[in-house]
Amino acid sequence: MAFGRLGNDKNFESDTSDLAEINIIPLVDVMLVLLIIFMVTAPLSIGGIKVELPHSAAKSTGIDEKRVILSINEQGDFYLDRVQVSSHALPDRFRTIFEGRDKKELYIRADRGVSYGRVVDAMGAAKGAGVLKIGMLTQAQATPR
User: Which is the most buried residue in 31, 65, 71, 136, by most CB within 10 A?
Assistant: First the structure.
């Protein structure tokens, strides 16, 4: 903060007042640095579980923000919202998630190396919990030039 005096030195006590200036430049600098940090780290946190999706030539459909995504990695482990779930607990978790929802849709991100049986197990658990639509997430196939 900077302080100064107004007036002459003769009448110092009668016409003086302190001037306070707030310097907001350091605050703006800190806010810009935080903004840059969040902009860089936000896309990195979206991926979550490492899954190599199979390629598909099918057109993609829009997915709303309140989607439920089940990820299955190459070892066959199940993940709901980046939290590992055992195969025995999966039906109960699905029931808990979908009991209060109007849209009973599940999207499955399965690694291309996972066995078909693990995907079928997940689909059976979802159907048993009342899921009406199941979508498979894939990577868009590269178009030849």
Answer: 71
Strand, coil or helix: what is 142?
coil
Sheet holding 133-136, edge to edge: 83-85, 78-80, 68-72, 105-110, 133-136
pLDDT along the chain (145 residues), means of 10: 54 59 88 89 63 62 69 90 88 89 88 89 91 84 60
H/E stretch holding 85 reads strand 83-85
What is the Rg, in whole angstroms, of the alpha carbon atoms belonging to the chain? 29
The letter for the amino acid at 134 is: I
- Domains of the chain and CATH, by start: 12-46 (no CATH), 55-140 (3.30.420.270)
Distance CA 86, CA 130 (A): 19
Task: Tell me the three-class secondary structure of 21-64, residue by residue.
Answer: ECCCHHHHHHHHHHHHHHHHHHHHHHCCCCCCCCEECCCCCCCC
Structure letter (DSSP) for residue 2: B
Cα–Cα distance, 113 to 44 (Å, whole number) = 23
pTM above 0.70, yes or no: no
